[in-house]
Amino acid sequence: MKNHLSDELHQLLNESLIYTADGKVADYIPGLAQADPHHLSIAVSYPDGTCHTAGEVEDKKLTLQSISKVLTLALVLMDRGEGFVFQRVGKEPTGDPFNSIIKLETISPSKPLNPMINAGALAVTHMLVGANVEERIEKLLEFLRLITGNPELTYNEEIAQSEMETADLNRSLAYYLKEHDVINEDVEDLMDLYTKQCSIEVTVPELAKIGLVFALNGQDPDSGRQVIPKRVASICKTFMVTCGMYNASGEFAICVGVPAKSGVSGGIMAAVPGKCGIGVFGPALDDKGNSVAGWKLLEKLSSKYDLSMF
Ligand code: DON
Predict the structure, then answer these.
(1) Mean pLDDT, residues 92-109
(2) CA-to-CA distance for 256 and 308, rounded, in angstroms?
(3) Of the candidates 154, 13, 173, which has an alpha carbon nearest to the alpha carbon of residue 104?
(4) How far is the CA of 122 from the centre of ligand 1 (A)?
(5) Which of 95, 114, 127, 202 could pair with 206 in a Cys bridge, judged by C-beta atoms 3.0 to 4.6 Å apart?
(6) Residues of the chain with CATH 3.40.710.10
(7) Which of 28, 32, 65, 240, when mutated, tests ligand 1's pocket best, judged by the most ligand atoms within 8 Å of its CB?
(8) Do 211 and 43 contact (CB within 8 A), yes or no?
(9) Atom of ligand 1 lying closest to residue 264 CA
């Protein structure tokens, strides 16, 4: 796909722009509500170090939001091991909205069904190693600086604070998890860590680079280093396929067919196995929390270049 991509990427982006009108910017986190609903941009990152982009990507950052869930999962799998992690969080899709509490109550023993829903992500964030919130977020940031090659990567304090003030549904999930011994730390500390994690800021090319490392089974083509063990990258990609687009993951697998993870800021990170990483940013969301135009753009790209794994 690479040789013709530059021009065609612009064309596909232009064709997808109209779909930005079909969605709404997330406003339940006030810091996200200021995003431009008409924005759409994309970057495709290749193993040889090239990166093609379309739309405005310079100086335009987005917060990872739920995309961060894949990265905390990778880090805790590396630090704690599969046995420890999956004793506390499951491996199955839910079919429910990302912030739903319902399965926590109906399944016994109470254990979040997977690491991509908020309950599961809170359980995974709880497993981040470190003496305090600052050490734990710093560890995650260092991991992301290594993957993106950006030593200045950090989180957006304003958006973290804005989520902290409004995250009562997540607080409820955390208290529920604490009652059932899935977590055992102070809920406010966990919320502080989780909101900072969700507010980590990247550019769209950095998002594509993260996707590329997963696409290459955890290897960073720039340094040649195995930054994520192959097995861990494989587990993360599997969750991206089964739960990465929440209760639209099955439809996305049919329409696009590559491992991908979305966030309510409007970002989508996709990993095309062995080929490339893709970052998309389109803040207007559908009713399930996925970027409407971002989805359409990936669908067009996948169909044009036959990217589906299935
Ligand atoms: O926990 C939240 O509600 C947000 N920080 C992240 C949710 C999210 O990105 C779900 N995505 N589709």
Answers:
(1) 77
(2) 6
(3) 173
(4) 11
(5) 202
(6) 2-62+203-302
(7) 65
(8) no
(9) 9
Q: What is the pLDDT of residue 111?
A: 84
Candidates 116, 146, 115, 294; CA nearest to 210 is 146
Token readout for 33 is 């509500």
Residue 3: the pLDDT is 52
CA dist., res. 237 & res. 214, Å (int) = 7
Give the type of residue at 55: G
- Quick check: 246 pLDDT over 60? yes
Q: Residue ranges for the binding site?
A: 66, 118, 163, 170, 194, 246, 264
Q: What is the mean pLDDT of the chain?
A: 94
Homologous superfamily of 2-62+203-302 in CATH?
A: DD-peptidase/beta-lactamase superfamily (3.40.710.10)
The whole-number average pLDDT for the span 114-124 is 95
Q: Is the pLDDT of residue 38 over 80?
A: yes
**Single-letter amino acid code for the residue at 91:** K
- Which residues are documented as binding site for substrate? 66, 118, 163, 170, 194, 246, 264
CB 65 near ligand 1, within 6 Å? yes
Chain centre to alpha carbon of residue 77: 16
What's the 227 CA to ligand 1 centre distance in angstroms? 26
Segment 203-236, tens digit of pLDDT: 999 999 999 999 999 999 999 999 999 999 999 9
By CB neighbour count within 10 A (0-12 exposed, 13-18 middle, 19+ buried), where does 234 fall?
middle
In CATH, what class is 66-198?
mainly alpha
- For residue range 271-294, what is the model confidence (pLDDT) as tens digits? 999 999 999 999 999 999 999 999
